[in-house]
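Continuing the batch. This is chain 6 of the set; chains 1 through 5 are on the previous pages. Same settings as before, nothing changed between runs. Recording input and output for traceability.
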Amino acid sequence: MEVYRLVRKKYAFPLSGKGSAIKGGRWNSPGFELIYTAENRSLAMAEVAVHFSLGTIPSDYLMLTIFVPDEVAYSKIFDSDLADGWKDFPHPTFTQRIGDKFIIEGANCLLFTPSAITQGDYNVLINPNHKDFSKVLVIKSEPFPINKRIFKIK
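Output for chain 6:
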């Protein structure tokens, strides 16, 4: 399978979860490393774009295509498995505890989580400390400027 990560060029390599461990994210607390990716390019872009306004969009983004062999173990969380408010912003701490538990247990390299931005789509979280992480490979890296037309100008 292929997953996608939209990331600023200076943070693209090496592929790690060190950035998410600094501040944490929806699915991990500070100190826990996760690599956030998406099932498709559009979702990868949407997940990044929600954090910017027209005037603050950096122009140095890369879209990484990441290959994950089919035999890499994964688990999946469904929207119906989650308590009300899981999509809230700022994100609730209970979603972070889910991701932290995934990392601590270490049974799977990937965790599919529903997108809080695009209903029906899934993000794919990668545990960079899992034994199978060495099988996860960036196979393509290309410039990916975010089109300013997605931000409505009034």
